[in-house]
């Protein structure tokens, strides 16, 4: 397994067993070019075409890439890293080919997965990976760091599922930190599973829910509206959309019994956000360049 | 143990905390708190998430960190606008009482910088500093409060035996101390690493139910 060419995160310095680096830049003709598209070890990345922000968008299309797990990972002991930089006025959509399944390592060590996303002014990143599944006995420490410049736009979806179907939960610590011009916009550390914080599955914790999702729409041209409950107290999915304090940003927080119930709500909300068809939550058209 | 800490955490100190259930009213209504056992688990879960974050913010403020940077950090760790409003309202009430009890220029400055109220744990930490208390004192006060307010509220909400509520808190005391220790250590790291070193433990179900609770037409507690 090669470890060359992938910078290791200072916080998790050590053996990197999989890494992806992508740089997207405006190509000067209204499109987006990918001067850097590199995968190492357990992770690969492929260009998968273009995607517009909306079907009717008059704005130029961006690039789209898909992350592909080249082998079973992350296993305990693995250190994976994804670095994506979207330059000024470029537009990039990142998906993944399949769910990421965290599995136990032989020695019971933790696995580490660090994602670093930077989005420059006038740029747009849609980060839409498939769910992360914490299999029984696994122990994954994930960090997602997003640095936005004012004038950048971000759509980010995160889904975490505890245990494969019918399986007991693995342990997961997943911290999502988003900054705008260096100021914190959102900082959430989700710590669940056996051996994590006491009370993690109790009445102030997951209360039996096994799937957790977040959808963040942030930045330039994004509407911030009042909080909106997306489900009723008696529903199996508990979800709310809330405006964040630090600027134009809306966060959808959802808990569900399993992945099957979580995805439809997030998918529906995401479609509404992308198509602009929602009456309450929608991105407003971005102001054009002066 | 300083008598100033006893006063700061005394339920009779006019800081307005009695009007808040720490999410217990919504949890009772949704059937997640039904008695002493589920109350204990609720308090435990809140202590290790919301309580840890509040304790670290309070410890950092008590250690003399930049209060407005901590206030921003609290915002980023509070995605629920209902909970942000509550925290700032409680912060404003606490600051009013604190400025009377322990007058200090830093408290006057915070009131001027955040006229609608700074986040309560930030005010708590700044108050502790003005009262001559340590970062660990501030962390203990915040951590204890995170478990204490649901326990006290549940006595009213469920008619729970007050002795049982006290027993819940007594059994949690070692965990409150451990959370305060961890929060204080993080606050010391934040002095060199910035507010990103402070814990950000999230409690998504508490965020959803806080928004639901805020939309109730009538309720016993503000939050």
Automatic annotation (TrEMBL), chain B:
<keyword id="KW-0143">Chaperone</keyword>
<keyword id="KW-0996">Nickel insertion</keyword>
<comment type="function">
    <text>Required for maturation of urease via the functional incorporation of the urease nickel metallocenter.</text>
</comment>
<dbReference type="InterPro" id="IPR038277">
    <property type="entry name" value="UreF_sf"/>
</dbReference>
<protein>
    <recommendedName>
        <fullName>Urease accessory protein UreF</fullName>
    </recommendedName>
</protein>
<comment type="subunit">
    <text>UreD, UreF and UreG form a complex that acts as a GTP-hydrolysis-dependent molecular chaperone, activating the urease apoprotein by helping to assemble the nickel containing metallocenter of UreC. The UreE protein probably delivers the nickel.</text>
</comment>
<keyword id="KW-0963">Cytoplasm</keyword>
<comment type="similarity">
    <text>Belongs to the UreF family.</text>
</comment>
<dbReference type="InterPro" id="IPR002639">
    <property type="entry name" value="UreF"/>
</dbReference>
<dbReference type="Pfam" id="PF01730">
    <property type="entry name" value="UreF"/>
</dbReference>
């Amino acid at each position: 397994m090669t470890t060359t060419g992938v910078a290791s995160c200072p916080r998790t310095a050590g053996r990197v067993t999989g890494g992806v680096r992508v740089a997207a830049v405006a190509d000067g003709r209204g499109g987006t070019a990918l001067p850097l598209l590199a995968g190492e070890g357990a992770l690969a990345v492929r260009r998968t075409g273009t995607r517009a922000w909306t079907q009717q968008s008059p704005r130029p299309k961006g690039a789209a890439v898909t992350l592909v797990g080249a082998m079973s990972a992350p296993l305990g002991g693995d250190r994976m890293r994804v670095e994506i930089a979207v330059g000024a006025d470029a537009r990039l959509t990142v998906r993944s080919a399949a769910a990421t399944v965290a599995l136990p390592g032989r020695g019971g060590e933790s696995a580490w997965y660090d994602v670093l996303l930077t989005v420059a002014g006038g740029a747009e990143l849609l980060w839409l990976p498939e769910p992360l599944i914490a299999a029984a006995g696994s122990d994954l420490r994930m960090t997602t760091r997003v640095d936005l410049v004012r004038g950048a736009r971000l759509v980010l979806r995160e889904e975490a599922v505890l245990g494969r179907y019918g399986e007991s939960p693995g342990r997961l610590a997943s911290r999502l930190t988003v900054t705008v011009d260096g100021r914190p916009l959102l900082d959430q550390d989700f710590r669940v599973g056996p051996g994590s914080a006491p009370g993690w599955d109790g009445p102030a914790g997951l209360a039996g829910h096994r799937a957790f999702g977040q959808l963040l729409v942030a930045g330039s041209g994004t509407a911030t509206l009042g909080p909106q409950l997306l489900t009723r107290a008696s529903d199996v999915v508990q979800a709310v959309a809330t405006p964040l304090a630090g600027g134009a940003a809306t966060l959808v927080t959802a808990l569900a019994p399993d992945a099957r119930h979580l995805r439809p709500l997030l998918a529906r909300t995401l479609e509404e956000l992308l198509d602009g068809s929602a009456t309450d939550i929608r991105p407003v058209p971005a102001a054009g360049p002066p | 143990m300083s008598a100033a800490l006893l006063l700061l955490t005394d339920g009779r100190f006019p800081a307005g905390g009695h009007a808040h259930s720490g999410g217990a009213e919504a949890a009772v209504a949704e059937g997640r708190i039904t008695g002493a056992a589920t109350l204990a688990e609720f308090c435990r879960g809140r202590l290790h998430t919301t309580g840890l974050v509040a304790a670290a913010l309070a410890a950092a403020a008590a250690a003399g960190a930049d209060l407005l940077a901590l206030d921003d950090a609290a915002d980023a760790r509070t995605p629920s606008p209902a909970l942000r409003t509550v925290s700032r309202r409680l912060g404003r009430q606490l600051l009013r009482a604190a400025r009377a009890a322990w007058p200090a220029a830093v408290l006057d400055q915070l009131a001027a910088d955040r006229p609608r109220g700074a986040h309560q744990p930030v005010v708590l930490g700044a108050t502790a500093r003005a009262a001559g208390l340590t970062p660990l004192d501030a962390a203990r006060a915040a951590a204890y409060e995170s478990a204490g307010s649901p326990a006290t509220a549940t006595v009213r909400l469920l008619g729970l035996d007050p002795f049982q509520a006290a027993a819940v808190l007594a059994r949690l005391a070692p965990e409150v101390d451990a959370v305060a220790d961890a929060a204080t250590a993080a606050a010391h790291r934040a002095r060199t690493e910035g507010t990103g070193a402070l814990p950000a433990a999230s409690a998504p179900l508490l965020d959803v139910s806080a928004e639901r609770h805020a939309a109730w037409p009538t309720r016993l507690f503000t939050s």
